[in-house]
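Homework-ish question, so no full write-ups if that breaks the rules, but can someone show me the predicted structure for this set?
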Amino acid sequence: MKIQPFLPPKRTLMGPGPSDVSPRILEAMARPTIGHLDPLFVQMMDEMKQLLQYAFQTQSELTMPVSAPGSAGMETCFVNLIEAGDQVIVCSNGVFGGRMKENVTRVGAEAIMIEDEWGQPVDPNKVESALKKYPNAKALAFVHAETSTGARSDAKALAQLAQAHHTLTIVDTVTSLGGIEIDVDGWGLDAVYSGSQKCLSCTPGLSPITFSERAQHTLQNRKSPVQSWFLDLNLVMGYWGSNQKRSYHHTAPINALYGLHEALCILQEEGLQAAWQRHNHHHQALRAGLEALGLSFVVAPEYRLPQLNAVKIPDGIDDAKVRQHLLEQAGLEIGAGLGPMAGQIWRIGLMGHSAQEANVKLCLQALGDALGAQNPDFSSTVALTAANAQYES
Amino acid sequence: MKIQPFLPPKRTLMGPGPSDVSPRILEAMARPTIGHLDPLFVQMMDEMKQLLQYAFQTQSELTMPVSAPGSAGMETCFVNLIEAGDQVIVCSNGVFGGRMKENVTRVGAEAIMIEDEWGQPVDPNKVESALKKYPNAKALAFVHAETSTGARSDAKALAQLAQAHHTLTIVDTVTSLGGIEIDVDGWGLDAVYSGSQKCLSCTPGLSPITFSERAQHTLQNRKSPVQSWFLDLNLVMGYWGSNQKRSYHHTAPINALYGLHEALCILQEEGLQAAWQRHNHHHQALRAGLEALGLSFVVAPEYRLPQLNAVKIPDGIDDAKVRQHLLEQAGLEIGAGLGPMAGQIWRIGLMGHSAQEANVKLCLQALGDALGAQNPDFSSTVALTAANAQYES
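A: Not a homework solution, just the prediction itself:
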């Protein structure tokens, strides 16, 4: 055995995440490691909380990054708020609703499933019926932006229904944070988690979360201990909490946090509204180009996420060959379909730093060429012309 | 609000971890992010597993880094192997034995505690008695290198006892891996976890683990699902396993894994035995210097970890002032005592890249000066002379 250092190629990342990482963030990751209790590091943590409060649009003191990827952020919400025997209404319209169900059952609680078709948003009428039928449900859990399909659900409307029935909300914003509007306090969301590697354009590995006062009250009044020691927010907040001496819980991922801090500084500099507009701006150009190529979207326009463009693979086209062509010829990654949509769709991300004109044009050029290699009816020229027309409109 | 990018100072890290990170590793962290299912990334994952097999001295296929810090590695071992109603013999001789107990009780199992004094190794006689008294205990859990005290327990002897009683071992090697001998297969350890930020000298945030065939058999024959979805190795191995299509579980922390890969390349280049010798070599010089300063060690020489030097704070010396002096005057971090040892001891790490002559001398110089500022009887010159004599011996 003699393994050499790993020198990754430069890719353009237009899959469902990770997205392209800004050079500023990569540079921040390489800054000198300092201790997790260093007074200067603690100052950085306080700034990080403020930056996350801005990104989530919340004043909640319990706003911080979990030291693990988004799936651990999801688990943090469920294990801290839900106890064995509780009922949770779980909305499933893609992969991540199914993952929420797993989280509910693994704490010994009952998941009451509301199913919508993949590609559709969560149906508020079904949610209202479930809230009426299960008045003791402790929480309503749903995905704001389904990464497996590209569908946006109406988080504000769903949260209003939950509030009217005195039910907590647990909300997946992994793919939405920084890409489309989220207003945690304004909408009254209770336990919200996200990921670093989507529209924040940081490297993967961290999961920002925020808990409302209602959620904190529920946490503080549990009957049983949180089943995960690592994710127990009662303990974690001894390290991340404010107005107290920071006590060691686990060793924070120092350099990863440097990266997230830088990503959030970039978001702050651009401004939330400007970031949302930018995602939509480039989405419209990409949409125009993809439609000119003859591709159709999985999700109807009114529920479509600008940052995750799910399109149907045309008949007769070999999915794997196209993605291999993109990767090898253009250094471009797009996403395959998950679960029942494997082989049926592509997921083209325009997240964070990836949401820029050069990426839109590279994608249309390369995808047109890859499709054209299998069927000469496809033309990248037509796609690029349509995108340019959209940019100039 | 207008928060600026965070520019950390350059520190010398000689606490209980994180240790100094090699510039090579920081540079690796800043390499371009690629996708977690990119064929080249999957190749890197395969190399990572080989490198970890070397570090742990095992052939086990279930050898990989958990995508979260060492505490999550600990939890991975417990939630995958232990079920509600099981009995686990837990050896406690410092903070991390206590944390193991928390992990046992939070899966609904019974922790049978074997207590040894802080600073002492785990007593094999007590372990043997417990194994006899509790013949149905599913596992024996102990810490190889107690980070809170600097004591090394005899992992080989403890594992032999467990095997004689057909009991699994769960072993914390967070502070030992790469710093002192570990022979997972030779000693027959079953579930072993470590951390990236100690003697591997990587940034914090990842937890290498390895499971023996016995442990894998136990995992595959569970009666109940693993209570953590994120840490469920049945699922995680769909992504990290070999000889199969890698399927998405969670988004791996790409750039952090670049760092760990580089750290393990460095370990491979140096060689395990050479790394262990280097830790001991610099420990002997530091020990000579600390003793010349009049400081006494918490742990007897035969159980002392070279990579974690716990020394008693002399009477009349202000703990916090000394550490503040070191940080502000010399940019040097050493560790405070934890739990009952807070204010009683310092923990001086010589881990990984920190285990070098320049660090030993910086530490003795700065510590002598900081002590001398409170009591002129302390002299850094005496300490440095003793260390030099040791280096020349």
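Now go work out the reasoning yourself. Hint: Chain B has two domains: 22-269, 272-392.
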